[in-house]
Every structure is written in structure tokens, then in C-alpha cells.
Amino acid sequence: MSKDLVIGVDSSTTACKAIAWDRQGKAVAQSRSTFDLISPHPNWYEQRAEDWWTALAESLRTLVAQVGADRIAAISLTHQRESFAPVDERCQPIRNGILWVDDRSHKQVAELDKRFGSDWLHDLTGKGPSTKQSLPKLLWLQEFEPEVVKRTYKFLDVHAFLVQRLTGQWVTSLPSADPMGVVDMRKGDWATDLIEKIGLRPDQFVPIKMPGEVLGEVNADAAKLTGLPVGTPVVGGAGDGQSAGLGANITGPGRAYLNLGTAMVSGAHSDHYVADKAFRTLCSPIAGAFVPEMVLGGGTFTVSWFVENFGSDLTGLKLPLSAEELLEAAAAKLPPGSLGLMLVPYWNGVMPPYWDPAATGITVGWTGAHRREHFYRAILEGIAYEHRLSMDRIEKATGQSLDEFILMGGGSRSALWCQIVADISGKKVTRSSTTEATNLGSGILAAYAAGWYPSVREAAAAMTSTERSFLPDEKTHAIYDRLFNEVFVNLFPALQTSIDRLTQLTYGGQQ
Q: Do residues 84 and 172 make contact, with C-beta atoms less than 8 angstroms apart?
């Protein structure tokens, strides 16, 4: 049988999903294996790196059994960004991996800003200091677990860890490494001066190669555990945000992706490096290109938080609708603006454009007329406002207008949310044909490396498609436009000093 399938792997914050894709980007089969999230202290989040590998092996073994090992042409991986694990010479974890969502490093973020200046760091790495990055957590390890740092042979992003287990090679891809915050974006390699200045050794980081490049082949040990044939090419992938953009065919100007997942991530395409505090810049899955991106830690996370804490009674009703669907039906009947209730969605701090790890959420405008459906709609609106805040600035900084957003992720299933994004942005919103665009991005890179297509762009064009579009309603957009420009953009700047002090007084002692 011909090798007519490639495997995309998405090792996310909650599970590892493997999908077999054909040449047209159709998912032929899939498998998923979950792993635990560990929280040793409030707002600290870790995972056993060994669980990343166990879940990968299990999901691959199940998938290969479904489709047949002889059909697999190549495999590529995408993954949760910024998460990393320190390992020894045998690639055995020295401690738990520290995740992107972990918030322990507030003090270290302030130290980085004071020592280097956020402007210098942002220009060098494309990112301002943030608790979501690996950089401040590396400083945290130096301060609180110096023996771990001393014993560490390599600090591995999730991609590098899994590639090493599959192939035995110590290597990662550029768009997998750069979210860590220690890559010189202009050079496309580790920022060795920065690494040395923070007291680490450049040799504690693995070599970097380009996305779409074959990094190694599945070795005999990995073959036994995964069911993949020995010699299967393992292709350099990208972090989950960039991979989602590729899976939405964002390979040129004019369009951007919007992933309404646990975090809300939206990015455009740029052929040139541009750094601006209004967004962060990452390396693209297309070698040599870049992704100006906004990210909000609380996307569907905030929606799920609300449903769990304010809609638990709805789950017990004997109705063919979920709690989210019931709340959406009620929220859809409300006028734009949620009857004066407005929400700034910083449930997990804020990166661009304010780069403030002490930021927390804001709700204003409460009256006795408000019910939980108003709060629910205000969450959807608040996240859409935040999306516009950064994307407007990406357009200005790059000089490229964005005419359409391609939506994917769990939140894209909400027709109400899709329409709200269109009405607030004033732009066309189109659903991706697959909610697995992140995984498809890795499948596209594997397809290119397998020789199915002459370029990554051509592979993306052939393997992606879209579905329903939502157009902004002119009258509704006019209402949202005034709310955005006259109220939303002023809320956090007006309250930032007080919010930061509140965080310091009530939470800062835990850092």
C-alpha cells in the first residue's frame, strides 16, 4: 500500500491528540490520550514530562492500529508553547515540567524588566517579559531550585522532548523554541548573550532547525512503543498558535486566524520581522516569515469558569442542550452591550498590549437588572473587544489591513460568539472547516516534508478549507464601535495602578 497518510500530533495542555491526514486535509482517523495537570500551589501549574511521552506513544499506537503502519509517510508535532522541562543526559526529567499557564514568576518578570528593560527584550525576542514565558521561570529555578539548574543537561520545550524520545536526536524547530523568550528573532537562533547574562549556558539548549525540515527518524525503541515503522521521518513542527495559523491557511497578507481555545490566540502573517509592544512576534511555520500575534490567557477558559461556577444548576436539567447552549440562547436575545455590563477579560493576566502579569479581570456597569445571561454575553463581548484591541494595532504596525478572520477552536462552534466577533471587529469572520486546525498545521508540514507538495504554502492551500461566514451588521457594529472606542479602551489603563496594587497586597506574598 502507498504511503498516503501523514500524522499530525498536538500535545496540548490537557491531552495528546494524533490525527491521520490525507492529501486533501481530511482527517481519516484520530486518537487522544489525556494527562494530569498538577498544581502544587495556587496558580502554579506543572506536568510530568514523562506523561507527555506516555500520552504520545499511546495515542500513536491506537491511531496506527486503525490505519496501518505502512500508510504513514511522515509525522510532525505541534505543542503547548512556553512549557518546558529540565532533563539529564538520558532525557530523564529532573523535575516536573513548568507550564505556560503557570504564574509563579511575577518577581522574576519585574527583575527582567529592571535589569534589561522591556523594550530591549521585546526588540530582541519579539516578546515582553511575561509569566507565561519560559524566561522568568528559568530565573525562578535559579533562585529556588539551583540544584535542578546545575544538574540540567538540556532545557527542552515540549516539541524537543518528544522529538528526542522519538528519534534520539537533541533538536527542536525555530517556531517551537522562540515562544520560550530566549531566541534572537533576527538571527533565528538562541540569544546566547541573554542566556549567559541570566547565568545559564548556551549548551543547555538544543540545536534549532527550520519547520518542515526532517529532524530525525523514529528509532527502534520508539517504534515498539508507538507502532510507527522504524525510519518514519519526524518533521520539525511549530508551537500550537503558529500551527493553527498554518492550518487556517494564513500564509499571506489580508487575513488572520483566531483560535477560540483555552487561550484566545490570533495572528497574521508578515514576511518581515516587526516588534511592537501591542503584540508579540513569533517565527512562522513558513521558514523565514513571522507571525504578529495577540494572545489572551483566558479564552474558553473564562467561559468554562463561568459555566462551572454560575451555571452548574443547568447541567442537571433533562434537556437536549448543554449549559453553554442554554446560556447562549438566553444571551443571544440580549442587545449588544449586555445592557451596560462590560468586562475586561484578564482572568489570567495580560500579555500584549499591556504586558502586566498582575492584571486581573474587570466588570463594570452592574445594576439590579442584570442576570447571569448578561454576564455570559459580556464575557463573549469582552474577549472580542480584547481581540480587536490588539488586531487594530497589528494592522497599524505592519501596514497591512486585515479583511477576514478565520476562526477555529471550541469557541468557534458558538454562532453567537462568531457574530459578536464580526460585529465588534467590523470584519468578515469565517469558520475553518475543521476545529482541529492546530493539528492540521502539523499535518501540512509533514505533507510538505513527505514530498506531497513543493512548498508549505501549496500544501496549506491544498489541505485547508472553510465553512460558514459571518458578516458584521452595520447598525450593531456602530453600537459596538462607540462602546469600544469610548469605554473599553480606557478601562484598564484607568484602573491599572489600583489593580496592580490590589494584586500585590493580596497575592504578591505568594511569589
A: no
Do 131 and 109 form a contact (C-beta atoms < 8 A)? yes
In this predicted structure, what is the pLDDT of residue 348?
Answer: 82
The answer to whether position 451 is within a domain reads no
Q: Is residue 85 part of a domain?
A: yes
Determine the pLDDT at residue 510: 45
On the question of a cis peptide bond just before residue 229, with omega within 30 degrees of 0, the verdict is: no
SS3 29: strand
Residue-level length of the chain: 511
Q: If residue 398 lies in a helix (H) or strand (E), which one and from where to where?
A: helix 372-398
Q: Is residue 453 part of a domain?
A: no
Residue 208 β-bridge partners: 172
Parallel, antiparallel or unpaired: strands 255-260 and 404-408: parallel
Count of alpha carbons within 13 angstroms of residue 50, beta-carbon side: 7
Whole-Å CA distances, 102 to 29, 45, 358: 33, 5, 13
Spatial separation of the C-alpha atoms in residues 275 and 284, rounded to whole Å: 14
Q: Are strands 466-470 and 428-432 parallel, antiparallel or unpaired?
A: antiparallel
Terminal Cα distance for the chain, rounded: 57
Q: Which structural domain range is residue 25 located in?
A: 5-249
Based on DSSP, count helices (H) and strands (E) in the chain, helices before strands.
18, 23
d(CA 472, CA 118): 37
Distant-in-sequence contacts of 183-190, Cβ < 8 A, 24+ apart: 183/125, 183/208, 183/283, 184/124, 184/125, 185/124, 185/125, 185/126, 185/273, 185/275, 185/281, 185/283, 185/290, 186/273, 188/283
In this prediction, residue 509 carries a pLDDT of 44
Position 207 in a domain? yes
DSSP 508: G
β-partners of residue 8 are 19, 76
User: Which pLDDT does position 261 carry in this prediction?
Assistant: 86
In which element (H, E) is residue 155 found? strand 154-157
Structure-block grid coordinates of residue 103: 504564574
Here the CATH number for the domain that contains residue 57 is: 3.30.420.40
Question: How confident is the chain (511 residues) per 10-residue block, as mean pLDDT?
Answer: 93 96 97 95 95 98 97 98 97 97 92 92 93 95 98 98 98 98 97 96 98 98 98 97 95 94 92 93 97 92 93 81 92 97 93 90 97 98 96 92 94 95 98 92 98 98 96 98 98 96 76 41
Residue 356 DSSP code: B
- Rounded Cα gap, residues 307 and 326, in angstroms: 10
pLDDT the model gives residue 467 = 94
Count of structural domains, the chain: 1
Query: Using CA atoms, how far apart are residues 324 and 416, in angstroms rounded to an integer?
Result: 11
Assign 38 to helix, strand or coil: strand
